[in-house]
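Sequence, please.
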């Protein structure tokens, strides 16, 4: 008889406890290097990144190194094919998630504030948020989703646990931002679920990377420069976040495509 092709996923095996170890190492790079080379941004009011130097040293360099770390882990595991391409069907209405997030992000950018900044600061902000989109999606919607998927979990649980770990990672911001980081972690968990849906819609990690990077660029554009002023558009991503939470809660049972009936199953055998 002809030999049946193997259905085992390609690459090395990574269990979820070891994935958590990888996440801790990822955090150590972000927080450790950030603390080592970062610059003091106190004395600048509400500005999160008052100068080009603060963007580069507090953001671009540590986040860029975390991207390299994530890429090295995926290379060692031999998972590039399955990480970059995640082909799991999803209902058509879910396309609203990435489309609405992209529109809200574009409209929510504080163009007036960015126009007052130097080209170097704006370009460094673009680089930083691009690295955020690539690095976090590679770690959580890339490696994380694959870890839980290969453990045999259902798509719902894959989405749940990868999003929960994504949110918990942001609790580490409490060292610099205090108790509000706990609320941020809850909000980020829901964002992680929406990025997971972007992965399902696009069947490629590139879509959530794009959405994530632009989403963060929109938000941070209101807190960059020596004296930033938030634009009215900043409420758009916030309102959409709430709307998407309600939408997903209402339609959560219709995210997955309907299972084929007995007739369809017979026809495909």
């Amino acid at each position: 008889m002809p030999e049946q092709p193997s259905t085992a996923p390609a690459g090395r095996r990574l269990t979820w406890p070891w994935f958590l170890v990888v996440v801790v190492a990822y955090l150590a790079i972000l927080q450790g290097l950030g603390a080592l080379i970062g610059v003091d941004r106190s004395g600048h009011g509400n500005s999160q990144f008052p100068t080009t130097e603060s963007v580069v040293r507090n953001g671009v360099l540590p986040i860029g190194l975390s991207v390299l770390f994530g890429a090295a882990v995926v290379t060692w595991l031999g998972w590039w094919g399955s990480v970059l391409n995640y082909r799991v069907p999803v209902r058509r209405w879910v396309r609203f998630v990435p489309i609405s997030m992209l529109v809200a992000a574009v409209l929510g950018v504080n163009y007036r504030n960015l126009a007052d900044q130097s080209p170097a600061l704006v370009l460094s902000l673009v680089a930083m948020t691009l690295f955020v989109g690539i690095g976090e999606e590679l770690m959580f919607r890339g490696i994380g989703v694959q870890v839980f998927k290969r453990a045999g979990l259902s798509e719902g649980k894959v989405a749940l646990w990868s999003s929960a770990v994504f949110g918990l990672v942001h609790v580490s911001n409490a060292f610099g931002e205090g108790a509000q980081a706990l609320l941020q972690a809850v909000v980020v968990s829901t964002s992680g679920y929406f990025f997971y849906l972007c992965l399902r819609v696009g069947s490629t990690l590139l879509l959530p990377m794009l959405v994530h990077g632009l989403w963060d660029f929109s938000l941070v554009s209101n807190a960059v420069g020596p004296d930033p002023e938030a634009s009215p558009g900043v409420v758009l991503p916030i309102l959409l976040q709430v709307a998407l939470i309600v939408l997903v809660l209402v339609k959560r049972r219709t995210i997955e495509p309907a299972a084929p009936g007995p007739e369809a199953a017979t026809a495909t055998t």
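Residues 119-150 form the longest helix (32 residues).
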